[in-house]
Design brief:
- The protein is 40% helix and 20% strand.
- It has 265 residues and is an alpha/beta fold.
- It folds into 2 domains: 2-45; 54-262, 3-Layer(aba) Sandwich (Rossmann fold), CATH 3.40.50.300.
- Helix 1 (2-17) runs antiparallel to helix 2.
- The radius of gyration is 20 Å and the shape is globular.
- The two termini are 17 Å apart.
């Protein structure tokens, strides 16, 4: 399924970006997509034997303290022009985020998804919202000279330290990896540290920028289930359309003229 998803996303991306001046290439891509869908039907009809994997023991969940009223409007914003330097990325970006929003945003590279997410973070903070973010560049938040345990511990109590170490252990960190400087951690480990940070932060709004790119296929279903149980607002930017479909209710394609709502399928 992971191999199929990777190929499907590549073909889907090529369909969205192929020039109209290449009708033959378009026909080949349509044929490829039909073949992929046929393969998916065969996979779905196959009776699989369950084999436990090492990620099944992962336990990561949000506490009841993070519940946010679904009717509460956390942010309502109109961005007339989104720019980076002297370059205009998009115009007329309208968004309304309530307490239980599940918003997914995708686009081609360079269209400004990450810039827009940073813009929303600033606006949310200006509105007094308690917001957590998982940036695409982990080093924006993670200090190289601190360990995961040092950075995650926000309360000087033995109970809180035990809680942090239990979370890290559930995400397959060894005791040595928990206390090593984060500069020595892999990108996948850094992604998991940031996920724990989001769980511990008790945020009413979470922004995720390409959160799945460094997680293993075995970990993804666990993370998707964790996010489904989050009761605050969730805004995800990703190239992984399947991840957006599985975790978000409202999906938008970002372009030069704002956000265009798309069907989740």
């Amino acid at each position: 399924m992971d191999k199929w998803r990777q190929i499907y996303q590549k073909v889907e991306h090529r369909q969205e970006t192929i020039s109209r001046q290449d009708p033959h290439g378009g026909q080949l891509l349509k044929k490829k997509m039909r073949n992929l869908k046929a393969v998916k039907r065969r996979i779905d009809s196959t009776e699989l034997i369950h084999k436990p994997d090492p990620e099944e023991a992962i336990k990561l969940f949000f506490s009841d303290q993070q519940k946010v009223s679904a009717k509460r409007i956390l942010l309502e914003d109109h961005c007339e022009v989104l720019t980076i330097g002297d370059r205009t990325l998009s115009t007329g970006l309208d968004i309304r985020i309530s307490g239980n929003s599940r918003i997914g945003i995708f686009s081609d590279n360079g269209c400004g998804k990450s810039t827009y997410l940073k813009y929303l973070k600033i606006k949310a903070i200006e509105n007094g919202r308690k917001i957590g973010i998982m940036p695409q560049n982990y080093e924006e938040l993670l200090p190289n000279n601190q360990s995961a345990v040092e950075w995650l511990i926000k309360e000087p109590s033995k109970e809180y330290k035990t809680k942090v170490m239990n979370y890290l252990g559930n995400l397959k960190f060894t005791e040595e990896e928990m206390v090593q400087p984060m500069v020595d951690c892999s990108q996948g480990q850094k992604a998991k540290i940031l996920l724990i940070h989001l769980v511990l932060g008790e945020y009413e709004m979470i922004l995720l920028d390409e959160s799945t790119r460094n997680l293993s296929p075995l970990t993804l279903p666990v993370i998707e289930e964790m996010l489904k149980n989050y009761s605050g607002a969730l805004i995800c930017v990703s190239h992984d359309r399947r991840f957006l479909i599985d975790t978000c209710r409202d999906i938008y394609q970002m372009g030069p003229e704002g956000l265009d709502e798309k069907s989740p399928d």
